[in-house]
Input
Amino acid sequence: MTASTLITVAPTGAEADKSAVPALPVTMDELIGTAKECEAAGAAVIHVHIRDEAAQPTLDQGRLAATVAALRAGNDLIVQLSTGGAVTDSFADRLAVLDAAPDACSLTCGTVNFGDDVFSNPWGFVKDLYLLTQERQVVPEFELFDLGHVAALHRLLGEFGAPAGGHVHCDLVMGVPGGMPGDVATLAAAVAALPAGATWSATGIGRTTLPVMFGALGAGGHLRVGMEDTLSFARGRPVARNAELVERAAELARIAQRPPMRPADARAFLGVASAS
Ligand code: KMH
Ligand code: ZN
Output
């Protein structure tokens, strides 16, 4: 079991509507402010989706590059760009995310029903994205929404070898309507199926946030939190700031005797090059 806990913050996502959720960080200033607060609270990685002037999700190239630069200038967090985007984004735009040269990126290992939508990740796209991460030396985090995605991860590693950075780190995204449920039995089954030597984080969507967090800490895993995944801090109490989700995760990690991992240690852990 790792002596410390990697905490990733996913502050924005592509789904929540700013008009309904005013605390959601959507502008560059809001994102940078959130990143600073979350780093101070114990986060080491930021999983980034960006929005346009109208607060709608976008994969605009210039905006992505500017966001990576601004985040790097403002703090030490590992910058992980989403290649998942929104369910409406094209495969070409999702591959082009790597042109912004982030430290790391998400890489979802299969298609999943996503509420009333479909988050599409056919094998050909998964393979192309993986080969691109190797070519560009962007460290992938393997997003697993379902147990079948674990099988696809084994296939990916078997056919194409180790990822950039040399280490396999996964994120179990649990409780998406259409994906694997966010409970401890499913968490244990998914962890047991991971490739030997892989490390993992977990996040539970919505009301599965706390069961998944407690289960992950108990099983030696790492944590992802943020308003991409949950908009309620407690029953009837909306999240006021992403940092309060990080603060809660950090406190639970300290109670579990596995305090938050600092960004420099997280770089070594994940195989991400040192900040320049
Ligand atoms: N917004 C979801 C459709 C990722 O960032 O890689 C996909 C997602 C996964 O959030
Ligand atoms: Zn995401």
